[in-house]
Design a protein that fits this description.
- The structure is a single chain.
- The mean pLDDT is 88.
- Helices cover 39% and strands 11% of the residues.
- It starts with a strand and ends in a 14-residue tail after the last helix.
- The protein has one domain.
- It has two helices and three strands.
- It is globular, with a radius of gyration of 13 Å.
- GO terms for molecular function: catalytic activity.
- InterPro entries: Prn/Lys/Arg_de-COase_C_sf.
Length: 76
């Protein structure tokens, strides 16, 4: 599940770091505007709920993050 977080004013790197540090969730890949959560057949309702809850917590916390650095090669 690829999540574009640029609209939050943070980066995918910031989201992935916070999710790892605060929730113990490792995202698959991240860049300056996206982060990727990989789901498989082994995931169930409980593990998906854990991800959704962690993303909700991250979004609430993101308003206190430093603004993401601008990537000069990317244009909105």
């Amino acid at each position: 599940m690829l999540l574009d977080v640029a609209g939050t004013g943070t980066s995918g790197f910031q989201a992935a770091d916070w999710l790892r540090e605060q929730c113990g969730i490792d995202m698959g890949m991240s860049d300056h505007r996206r982060t990727l959560a990989t789901l498989s057949f082994a995931d169930d309702e409980r593990s998906i709920r854990r991800l959704v809850d962690a993303m909700t917590r991250w979004r609430d916390a993101a308003c206190s993050f430093d603004p993401a650095p601008r990537n000069c090669s990317w244009r909105p």
